[in-house]
């Protein structure tokens, strides 16, 4: 059972790809829940807390901040799709989240 | 590839019992020029310094008998793996899991270190340096002509006297401090961590510092030759450094939110970007 859970988690993390949105996005895409955790985020935190409880809080905080970064940048892009600074910030935000996922995968693998 | 395991019990070197539960051991492993050393150690510390010759010297202290250090070297001597792990069926506390490493590495050997809470200190290495820590302080000093990659979750990062480097830091919540760090390529990204840079941004380099809510503070000497842009989406920008206004920019500077200018011949490109953090450029 534990092995199966690990396999599912690992597949989710390895397949995680931040989807950079197109410049033209609808307000609906800029979800107010972005700073919350989605299913993958929750699995990531759960797995890290099992493997390395001493750093799980750091992952949780950083993941929440990365999500807030994405949400803020997304909203700025929505307001002005031609805003290069906002576009670059959105790209950076996704890269920060990707870094967290890469580190979590390394941490979670047996 | 065939790997040879270096038995820690048969290791050449010193094995001494220190105090309750602590054991110190030292091993020497030959490494080929251009080889790689990979180190994984969750807690404790990892200190690396440069050495002469063609051997990697690993001295480590364990804090309990519940952990083991695996050291392996490939048959061609091109890759050394050093990995701390808890022994099967053992429940080790954070303190019991700690291992403190002192590692000497010859010039030209690449190093990769991964820790959870253990601080990493690198002094004087020459080669590719890749450091990753969740929360442990990362310190790099006296490194030249190297690629330095640092990744952290909430790990504070400090680089000093890192010259002619390719520096790439993704620090998330950790604060980043750079003193006398020069390119050709210096890239720093955080989410909430502050970024502090003190130096002259020389080497005709590209310098990019970006953050979401952290602050960026750049202190330059009057001799700095930079082509500088600072932009914040919703934060503020301040400039106390004498810059000549640029006649043409790719964006329209907006007082308090962005500015652009050059000093001296503007030989290095410096881009500072934040979403809501404050950006400040100061004269040294």
Model description:
The complex is a heterodimer of chains A (110) and B (284). Chain A is mainly alpha-helical. Chain A has one domain. Chain A starts with a helix and ends with a helix. In chain B, 0% of the residues lie in helices and 56% in strands. About 3% of the residues of chain B have low confidence. Chain B has no helices and 27 strands. In chain B, strand 7 and strand 8 form a beta hairpin. At the A-B interface, helix 3 and helix 4 of A face loops of B.
Topology:
The complex is a heterodimer of chains A (110) and B (284).
Chain A: H1 2-14, H2 39-51, H3 53-79, H4 84-108
Helix pairs in contact in A: 1-2, 1-4, 2-3, 2-4, 3-4
Chain B: E1 3-6, E2 15-17, E3 23-30, E4 36-40, E5 44-51, E6 55-62, E7 67-74, E8 79-86, E9 99-106, E10 110-115, E11 120-123, E12 129-133, E13 138-144, E14 147-152, E15 157-163, E16 166-172, E17 176-181, E18 185-190, E19 195-198, E20 206-211, E21 216-220, E22 226-232, E23 237-239, E24 244-245, E25 258-262, E26 268-274, E27 279-283
């Amino acid at each position: 059972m534990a092995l199966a859970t690990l396999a599912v988690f690992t597949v989710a993390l390895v397949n995680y790809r931040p989807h950079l949105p197109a410049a033209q996005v609808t307000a609906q895409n800029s979800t107010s829940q972005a700073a919350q955790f989605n299913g993958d985020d929750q699995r990531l935190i759960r797995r890290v807390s099992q493997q390395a409880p001493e750093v799980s809080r750091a992952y949780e905080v950083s993941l929440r901040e990365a999500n807030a970064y994405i949400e803020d940048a997304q909203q700025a892009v929505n307001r002005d799709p031609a805003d290069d600074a906002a576009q670059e910030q959105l790209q950076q935000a996704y890269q920060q989240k990707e870094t967290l996922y890469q580190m979590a995968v390394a941490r979670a693998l047996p | 590839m065939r790997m040879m395991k270096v038995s820690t019990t048969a290791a050449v070197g010193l094995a001494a019992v220190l105090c309750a539960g602590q054991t110190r051991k030292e091993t020497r492993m030959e490494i080929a020029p251009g080889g790689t050393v990979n180190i994984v150690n969750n807690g404790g510390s990892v200190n690396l310094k440069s050495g002469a010759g063609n051997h990697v010297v690993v001295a480590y202290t364990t804090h309990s008998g519940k952990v083991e250090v695996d050291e392996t070297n490939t048959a061609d001597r091109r890759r050394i793996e050093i990995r701390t792990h808890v022994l099967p069926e053992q429940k080790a506390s954070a303190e019991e899991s700690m291992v403190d490493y002192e590692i000497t590495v010859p010039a030209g050997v690449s190093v990769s270190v991964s820790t959870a809470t253990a601080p990493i200190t690198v002094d004087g290495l020459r080669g590719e340096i890749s450091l990753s820590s969740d929360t442990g302080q990362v310190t790099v000093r006296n490194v030249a002509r190297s690629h330095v990659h640092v990744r952290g979750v909430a790990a504070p990062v400090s680089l000093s006297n890192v010259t002619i480097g390719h520096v790439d830091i993704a620090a998330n919540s950790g604060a980043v401090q750079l003193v006398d760090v020069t390119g050709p390529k210096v890239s720093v990204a955080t989410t909430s961590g502050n970024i502090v840079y003190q130096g002259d941004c020389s080497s005709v380099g590209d310098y990019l510092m970006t953050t979401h809510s952290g602050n960026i503070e750049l202190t330059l000497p009057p001799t700095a030759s930079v082509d500088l842009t600072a932009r914040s989406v919703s934060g503020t920008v301040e400039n106390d450094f004498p810059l000549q206004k640029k006649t043409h920019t790719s964006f329209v500077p907006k007082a308090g939110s962005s500015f652009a200018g050059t000093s001296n011949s503007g030989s290095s490109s410096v881009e500072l970007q934040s979403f809501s953090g404050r950006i400040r450029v100061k004269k040294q």
